[in-house]
Automatic annotation (TrEMBL):
Cross-referenced PANTHER family: DIHYDROFOLATE SYNTHETASE-RELATED, FOLYLPOLYGLUTAMATE SYNTHASE-RELATED
Entry protein name: Dihydrofolate synthase/folylpolyglutamate synthase
InterPro entries (alphabetical): Folylpolyglutamate_synth, Folylpolyglutamate_synth_CS, Mur-like_cat_sf, Mur_ligase_C, Mur_ligase_C_dom_sf, Mur_ligase_cen
One Gene Ontology term of the molecular function aspect: metal ion binding
High-level lineage: Bacteria, Pseudomonadati, Pseudomonadota, Alphaproteobacteria, Rhodobacterales
Amino acid sequence: MSHTDAILDRLMALHPKVIDLSLDRMHRLLGALGNPERSIPPVIHVAGTNGKGSTQAMIRAGLEAGGKRVHAYTSPHLARFHERIRLAGDLIPEADLAAVLEECEAANDGQPITFFEITTAAAFLAFSRVPADYTLLEVGLGGRLDATNVIDEPALTVITPISIDHTQYLGDTLPLIAGEKAGIIKRTVPCIVGPQQDEALRVIENRASGLAAPLFVHGQHWQIARDRDGMVYQDDFGLWDLPLPNLIGPHQIQNAGAALAALRHLNATDAQALAAVTQAEWPARMQRLRHGPLVDLAGPQAELWLDGGHNPAGGEALAATFETLPSRPTHLVCGMLNTKDIAGYLRPLAPFAETLTAIDIPGEPNTLPAAETAKAAESVGITTRTATDAASAIAAIIETAPQARILICGSLYLAGRILRENG
């Protein structure tokens, strides 16, 4: 166990609830640390249900192509906690991470605080000590009461598509969830709004109106559409004729639009717009695995893919992606958390899946048992079986379908485990 792993284990025990949305504990700890969040570079704050990470990755690629130094905060991590914190473009070094975690632990002095809150405070501390031009903050959950929502005057906010998810924390209707996401909107600060259902957009518009925050809304102020083998982005300032995003899937065109709208407001050049859609990297979002022991196990004729989507909107995005791929027998290996709408996620995938092999997520206390995942898959018409782990599932699929397209899916926690297993 590394030094930072030992610290992170201690921090996990500071609060009985993993998720407990509130800003009180965050303000207390930041005050004890000297309010480092007030000293970080200009913030671009990103909320939404789906597409936050991809949109942030494209904004970062565009800014960095213009020579900007960019901090970035995202969650959850996949293989290593260090992925959550980028300092001026690079993953935070082990020694720096250990130092800010220990400083936050000491300042907290054993008081109750969630793991996400104290590690977010550590990120702010790290960001305040390294010069940069911008700070990209991805909301962890919701927005209004998320630990990242302590920035009073961001440079820009971005709200990606909102759909039903995390109902136990955010509410069980789209307007309630949209109200939580719209909580990142700040007085007079411009907000980029991705494609939204009417119910969600009305909530966003009402919040922005009360705060005199200018909105730049998809379909009203900016548009993006596929055009042959590329795409065209257009707003009041002009047009960008660009290739398709290197991140795979039709939904990434919408994410690219939000990123490009943000970059436009940051005075990006044509070259930066091109870099945003061609140089962004974001693992476990319809990622083709090409090397490693799991790829070797699948064999040279098979395709092995990985995706961390986990809600109905994520299932719909995957289904739309399958529509664009060459026809090939497709088999799913799926593990999910017990807090998710399993059938809602799998229903859009049913027409494309010949089989689904259900597995537990290793080491995850909130994993849905494989048998229950299989039962949900059967309820939407998918032929199912179970396996003890991903490697066993892949081996069983390849026995009868050596040329299969295999997609491991259902959870970012599973995706992280797969990336570690695959080296």
